Amino acid sequence: MWNNLSRILFVLGLIVAGAAAYLYWGYGAHLRRQSAMLSARAQELALENERLKEEVIYLGNRMSHEVAKISKQKQAEIAKVRSTRDEMIRSLQGEVTQGQVKITQLADRLSVNIVNRILFPSGQTRISGQGMKVLMRVGTVLAKVQDKTIRVEGFTDNVPPGHSLKGRFPTNWELSTARATNVVRFLQDSTGVNPAMMEAVGMGQYHPVASNRTADGRSRNRRIEIILAPRYSSLAAKLVRSAVSGGKPVIANTVPEMASDKHPASKPTR
To answer: By three-state DSSP, how is residue 77 classified?
Structure first.
């Protein structure tokens, strides 16, 4: 009986030993290979993490440098606009004092707001003699400006064009556009402002600065605004070229050509 029990225990021991050997040398080897692969991958990820940390530090330093540089350039641009504003105020001091011209600066943007009554005779799009004198002084200052967009916007009140004007100006869109265009053409032909820097835009009656319920309010809404603003297309192109060059800014003339009409300024009557 004891001999049979010993034999059974011996056989069971062999089975257990065989199973243990199989697990160790078979499945255990697979686990060790998996562990080695995971360790190698962990080392790769650690190295990649260190590389990314170094890149983040580099990009942070570079961004700080670029932000400081852009800030200095921005301050220089604001100073230039401030100088243009001061010169414009000196040139139009009389009209500014009388409330016929309003000049405002917001950072690197300059706005010259001129009421229509000193630019156009009542019911007309032809620039008046007084208006020409005012625009000559405005143009003398604008002709010195470089690398800016000069946007001339025409505005009206909410009164539709009269019966005699309906054929040429069906709505205030056409009327405001015609006046803005005539101002642009005058600045180009008479004061030498670069036409590639200018835009003529009709805003119609939809951007009032006062109530149209009173005569004074309607008078204030009938106006021409000349806005100096940064040339964003040029700035965007410079930033792209800077990125392509690896962070070394490349300054180039990237301002797109604009078509200009060489014919004399039209003088429509209203």
So the answer is: helix
Three-state DSSP state, 247:
coil
- Cβ distance 204 to 159 under 8 Å? no
The pTM score is 0.65
Nearest in space to 208 (alpha carbons), one of 190, 220, 198, 196: 220
Sign (positive/negative) of CA torsion 181, 187, 132, 89?
A: positive
Averaged pLDDT for residues 33-60: 86
Query: CA geometry: angle at 85 spanning 142 and 127, to 5°?
Result: 45
Residue 221: count of CB within 10 angstroms of its CB: 21
Q: Which helix (H) or strand (E) holds 226?
A: strand 223-230
Taken in order of first residue, the domains within the chain and their CATH numbers are: 69-244 (3.30.1330.60)
Phi-psi region of 208 (alpha: psi -120 to 50; beta: other; left: phi over 0): beta
